[in-house]
Sequence to fold (561 residues):
Amino acid sequence: MNVHAAPAATESILIEKDVDVPMRDGARLKADVFRPKDGARVPALLNLGPYQKDKLWLTPDTLEEKQNPYMNWETANPLWWVPNGYATVRVDGRGSGKSPGHFEPWSLSEAIDYYDAIEWAAKQPWCNGNVGLTGISYYAMNQWFVANLNPPSLKAIMPWEGAADLYRDALFHGGILNVFMTNWVTAHTLHHLLGRASREEPDRWRTNALYRWVRASLDSGELRDSQAQWDQIKVPMYTVGNWSGFGLHLRGNTEAYNRAASKHKKMRIHAGSHVHAFYTEEGRADQLRFFDHWLKGIDNGIMKEPPVKLAIRKGNDVLEWRHENEWPLARTQWTKMYFDLSKAPPEGQPQTGQLVTENPKTSSSSTYATFGLGTMGSSSAASSQVMGGGGIKPGMGVALETPPLPNDVEVTGPLMASFWVSSESEDMDLFLTLRHFDGDGKEILETGQQGAPVPVAKGWLRVSHRELDPERTLPYRPYHKHQRRQYLEPGEIVKVDVEIWPTSMVFSKGHRIRLDVQPRDGVGSAGYLHYHADYNTGRNTIYAGGEHESYLLLPIIPAKT
Fold:
């Protein structure tokens, strides 16, 4: 352990570098501890993960918390937290940074290590015995998995933009592989094999996480330890999502609020980029009040306030905060906007339809080509399918649109679409995108989690994965089993229910709501592309009206009276 002399800006902070944190199997992970220099016994806020505790994060100029020598990607800033009466502890996960061993991301072994780190911190002479978990993304996801184990000294968690089900939220969207995750493994393997971390130990990523993940293409139980066990998560929690986080985190945060066994839980959902909200004055105030209540016993009223705090989006990054008492909102008017394909253009032209308030009396259909991988080979498995800044080839899929709205319409909550499909192939992929167009036909986009413009919401389903779990399915949120593949016979017409991740948007009078149903990644997918299996070829058909009732279910929120 090395004790560093604090610079003038941190003269009240004691910084201990490379502290040994003993694990139950005899291993010792390395941690940095930032705590009050006066020796006060304070709560501990922990981060454990692979992003290297010694790696300085060069923050963007737009971040409210400014650059300092101790900023570290997605973790708590000690120069803010320690003066507010906390110790912050950063632990290099096993097999990453300066910690020995073999790295297994989001695994049972990592959760056990985290349990041991929590109990170690609670017993330190500088700690008051209470431990909380904080942090974004990776540092949010593994909060769920250690909370599955209920460490006795863990008193509160605040997973900030954290997927909770590695299979559904991160790896396989509706059964379709999200290549963000395969790229993530590659990037962090390279950091530890070729970057500075390799000087400590050059061979710590021997466990083939990538193979294990991709091989688990059905929810067979292989990834159970990387899925929140909601009936076991009983610790007080504040789950924090991001409307722009479809593709990785948002679903986990909303599922947590409804399904976790905790008797004390809150939820907030903001918008914008992945890191900015965590470091705002407003965001830090929410964090501090929550941890002050649960780790210091301060009765600051936070748990008496409405439990849900939502950023209501109004387009072009305009939003206003609103508190609610439940999720989904009790006053939701669940509204079906039916597919009308009766005026679909001839096949070969871009396919369009309408979203209407009543199911058309007669059935109609729309057929589009999917375009196979052809000679482009593996390169077209994902990124090359995104053409011209996010679009796909003309004629791929169907665009369904409302008439100009007669009044402002707020859509806040979970969404889904139920419709009928067939294919010439044995399978088909469905990529659903909810979009927002103004009166002049210009699309209104928002700042996405990765900083690029994104539409309102997205959903996905590989049709062979259409089997629902009746015990977990809700009228507004399908829950798919993903335990077997039900391949199609050519021309077989089947019903599909597609989960669209929750959202909030006020569509102004005169604007239009549009739903794209496509066979490839569409607009706003750049951060989270997918592998398009080689059997998704030929022509696909969508049916609507009559006996083929097809609709988009919208959670429309009337104004409070």
Summary: Residues 179-194 form the longest helix (16 residues).
